[in-house]
């Protein structure tokens, strides 16, 4: 049985914000005027109940309705990569996004012929529901991109339209013994979401092993490297293996494209309790599906389902 709800009601916020003020109110009435004691108890109960109700984490996502969320902060990572932080309605609000799923972003954008068109793209936040009040998106902007270029033009205070959750992947603790992951570029975002969930779940008994191959062109293209290295140093059950097309001198990681040999060396062997996760550019995903089948994994389907051994986001 989980002790999380009990621990929550014994937290400092509840003690300082509810129990102590209520106790002082009741004790004060007992000392000053005992006739007021029933009213003091009733008032303390009402105020305490409201405090508990108002502090509940409230999911805000709607699967079929686009909602506006305001850009709160923009952190530049490189010339074409930024982390965008969007505010949720209340400090206690959460997206309500299951681990492994993503959101859709919509914008009406001008077209070359002078018309306007609604464009929708999917993104996975790099934040989670354990961080109420906001959500973060890591986005790389491309010159020919639609939504990504639109995002780069946003200034603090402007809004985006979001709906969700979307996707077939829903991570649950110990759903597999071992994850093998292959990510390219911004394909790291769903992987990072799952990796963080696994590590957060260690205290509650999540024993999932994770090995990640993260492929990029240049060293400066490795997104969130400090975060990944920190997680690997923190948790012996997570290992990250980098692959670069243009490696620097004295590079000890992989070189070139991800090969079957790299998959064999760094990722778990095919088994019923092993799942291979893929996310990256379409040509890379096609190559990895073919390579994984050649190594004995079950053939990847055109559209992945949760139960598939090879799952492409």
Automatic annotation (TrEMBL):
FAD binds at residues 121, 123, 138, 140, 147-148, 189. It is found in: Mitochondrion outer membrane. Its main location: mitochondrion. It comes from the Eukaryota. Residues 64-172 form the FAD-binding FR-type domain. It is a single-pass membrane protein. It catalyses: 2 Fe(3+)-[Dph3] + NADH = 2 Fe(2+)-[Dph3] + NAD(+) + H(+); 2 Fe(III)-[cytochrome b5] + NADH = 2 Fe(II)-[cytochrome b5] + NAD(+) + H(+). The keyword Oxidoreductase applies. The keyword Mitochondrion applies. NADH-dependent reductase for DPH3 and cytochrome b5. Required for the first step of diphthamide biosynthesis, a post-translational modification of histidine which occurs in elongation factor 2. DPH1 and DPH2 transfer a 3-amino-3-carboxypropyl (ACP) group from S-adenosyl-L-methionine (SAM) to a histidine residue, the reaction is assisted by a reduction system comprising DPH3 and a NADH-dependent reductase, predominantly CBR1. By reducing DPH3, also involved in the formation of the tRNA wobble base modification mcm5s 2U (5-methoxycarbonylmethyl-2-thiouridine), mediated by the elongator complex. Monomer. Component of the 2-(3-amino-3-carboxypropyl)histidine synthase complex composed of DPH1, DPH2, DPH3 and a NADH-dependent reductase, predominantly CBR1. Belongs to the flavoprotein pyridine nucleotide cytochrome reductase family. This is NADH-cytochrome b5 reductase. The lineage of its organism: Eukaryota, Fungi, Dikarya, Ascomycota, Pezizomycotina.
């Amino acid at each position: 049985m989980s002790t999380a709800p009990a621990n929550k009601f014994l937290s400092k916020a509840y003690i300082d914000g509810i129990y102590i003020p209520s106790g002082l109110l009741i004790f004060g009435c007992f000392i000053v005027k005992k006739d007021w004691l029933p009213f003091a108890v009733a008032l303390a109960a009402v105020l305490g109940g409201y405090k508990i109700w108002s502090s509940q984490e409230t999911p805000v996502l709607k699967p079929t309705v686009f909602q506006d969320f305001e850009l709160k902060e923009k952190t530049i990572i490189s010339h074409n990569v930024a982390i965008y932080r969007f505010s949720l309605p209340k400090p206690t609000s959460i997206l309500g996004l299951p681990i492994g799923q993503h959101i859709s972003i919509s914008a009406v954008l001008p077209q070359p012929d002078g018309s306007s068109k609604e464009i929708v793209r999917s993104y996975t936040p790099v934040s989670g529901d354990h961080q109420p009040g906001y959500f973060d998106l890591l986005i790389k902007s491309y010159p020919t991109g639609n939504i990504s270029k639109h995002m780069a033009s946003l200034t603090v205070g402007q809004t985006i339209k979001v709906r969700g959750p979307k996707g077939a992947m829903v991570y649950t603790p110990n759903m597999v013994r071992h994850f093998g992951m292959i990510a390219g570029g911004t394909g790291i975002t769903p992987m990072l979401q799952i990796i963080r969930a696994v590590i957060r779940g260690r205290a509650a008994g999540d024993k999932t092993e994770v090995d990640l191959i993260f492929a990029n062109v240049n060293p400066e293209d490795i997104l969130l490297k400090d975060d990944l290295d920190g997680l690997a140093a923190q948790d012996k059950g997570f290992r990250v293996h980098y692959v670069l097309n243009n490696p620097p001198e004295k590079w000890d990681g992989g070189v070139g494209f991800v090969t079957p040999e790299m998959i064999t060396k760094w990722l778990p062997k095919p088994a019923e309790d092993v799942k291979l996760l893929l996310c990256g550019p379409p040509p890379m995903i096609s190559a990895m599906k073919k390579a994984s089948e050649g190594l004995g994994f079950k053939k990847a389907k055109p559209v992945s389902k949760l139960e598939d051994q090879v799952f492409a986001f």
